[in-house]
Amino acid sequence: MNQPQVYKSNALVEASYRLTPAEQRIMLCCISQVRRDQTLTDEVMYRVSVADYAALVGTDSHSTYKEVADAALRLKRREVWLREFPNGDGQRPRTLVTGWVQSIAYIESEGHIELRFTKDMLPYLTQLSERFTRYALSDVAKMTSSHAIRLYELLCQWRDAGKREVAIEWLRDSFQLGDKYPALKDFKRRVIEPAVAQINEHSPLWVKWDQRKTGRRVSHLAFTFGEKAQKAPQKPRKGKTKGKAGGKAPSASGSIYGIPMAVIETHARPGESHEDAALRILEERKN
């Protein structure tokens, strides 16, 4: 069965914006429904089924509707800063600041929501003839770090090359980090290391990274990456196997970095994202 594919103009991949993982998934679910062979208008509504969303992420659909509905409302208020035209037509004379969606419809009785893209967003999603990035929606579905999803897209742009070097300040601006993690060690620990770990765990790519200096200052990050080797299907072993206590437990759904969502929500500080709360809890457990 063909997997839903995400197509984005490279200008959108490199745009400056910040979305939570839930907002990203909703946006990508809608983008994967765009027909590339048809002219897209801002009259089309794209549906996100809570059951399909839950199956994609691997969570219980009974507890997912509120998450999807809340994320969709936040998405309505999000901005994206675009500095280039789609299809490789060069830089805009002025930066375009626009929204992702212009309207949202909630159909709770049927368990889905519907979104309509803004008119400004359409050229970055359809009729792309060059300079666009494509990947399977399932590649990022289980990532719980918004930075991991963004970084994965940036690497997919250079998938054939297997290498990409980016300026740290440019990456911070693209992720809209603002004044968060001003120290390089915190930026690497809170953003880059978790993102790389999730790409290695959940996506078809393996990735390694290093840093580069301009003079005495670390100014760039260099990523090398490639396709993971396809594992041959294992034949079932003959005979009975005995369960062992203390074996490695599988990753449970509804967790971030191994911290259950219930624990994160209980200990999260006012205004703190689930991702940041999980990282803080991990740090506190080490001490």
Briefly characterize the structure.
It contains 9 helices and 13 strands.
Tell me what the structure shows.
With about 290 residues, the protein is an alpha+beta fold. It folds into two domains: about 1-140, Winged helix-like DNA-binding domain superfamily/Winged helix DNA-binding domain (Arc Repressor Mutant, subunit A); about 145-230, Winged helix-like DNA-binding domain superfamily/Winged helix DNA-binding domain (Arc Repressor Mutant, subunit A), CATH 1.10.10.10. It is about 30% helix and about 25% strand. It has helices spanning about 10-15, 20-30, 50-55, 65-75, 145-155, 170-175, 185-200, 260-265, 275-285; strands at about 5-10, 15, 45-50, 80-85, 90-100, 100-105, 110-115, 130-135, 165, 205-215, 215-225, 255, 260. A hairpin with a 2-residue loop joins strand 10 (about 205-215) and strand 11. Helix 2 (about 20-30) crosses helix 4 (about 65-75), helix 5 crosses helix 7 and helix 8 crosses helix 9 (about 275-285). The protein is globular. Residues about 240-255 have low confidence and may be disordered.
